[in-house]
Specification:
- The protein is an all-alpha fold.
- About 70% of the residues lie in helices and about 0% in strands.
- It is built from 11 helices and no strands.
- It is elongated, with a radius of gyration of 18 Å.
- The protein starts with 6 loop residues before the first helix and ends with a helix.
């Protein structure tokens, strides 16, 4: 069964570059949205050199795609690896955004980083358990399609119910978009589940609490 969540795969880089960060990366994102990719590269490089891991992954993306600069797989790999080092330190300290960002770097699409389903699942799960809406939506996708985990439609439905809310904290516009996506996927999945399975998932979602 295919769900709307598959758009997450193509949206990964955009998600990484829209996490909260004031300064050059924010300017780079604005230039990127305006299709001024050379200008975006300029700002992403500034952010990367200032130690912003999101700036590093954004710069790596531009090198990987040859967008606003010449393609340079070596530079893309270098900046992804540097970002991973920073994210790994923050993730180990319980930073949910860093946990999610690190998981993305292990999904096989980032040059210089291994395709490691176990690490991807580890950090996606850690972020999801901390009420990271995008991670919860992504985790539902993994279970719905058996990506790195045994396919489990009940778990997929459960995580999409959790992601779609309610949440104890106000959601950003970015989170709201993914919460809406999770809600749409949950509605689709409900058509493939028995009443008993739906009740099981709803019960699990109701008692779930962030760690």
């Amino acid at each position: 069964m295919r769900h709307r969540g598959v758009v997450l795969i193509s949206a990964i880089w955009a998600v990484l570059s829209t996490a909260s960060w004031a300064g050059p990366r924010e300017d780079g994102d604005a230039a990127w949205r305006a299709n001024d990719y050379a200008k975006a590269v300029k700002f992403y490089r500034q952010a990367a050199e200032q130690g912003d891991p999101g700036g590093m992954t954004s710069l790596a993306r531009q090198y990987q795609l040859g967008s606003g600069t010449e393609k340079n797989p070596g530079e893309a790999a270098k900046w992804n690896k540097r970002a991973a080092e920073i994210y790994r330190q923050r993730a180990a300290q319980g930073d949910a955004e860093a946990q999610y960002a690190l998981a993305v770097l292990y999904d096989g699409n980032a040059l210089g980083m291994p395709n490691d389903p176990a690490e991807h699942l580890k950090w996606i799960s850690a972020a999801a358990e901390q009420d990271h809406v995008i991670a919860q939506t992504r985790l539902g996708l993994l279970y719905s399609q058996g990506l790195g985990v045994p396919e489990d439609r009940v778990k997929a439905y459960t995580w999409w119910l959790i992601a779609s809310g309610p949440h104890a904290r106000p959601l950003s516009d970015r989170d709201k978009r993914f919460a809406d996506l999770a809600a749409a996927n949950a509605r689709d999945m409900a058509n493939a589940l028995s009443p008993a399975q739906i009740a099981q998932a709803k019960s699990a979602a109701t008692v779930w609490k962030p760690k």
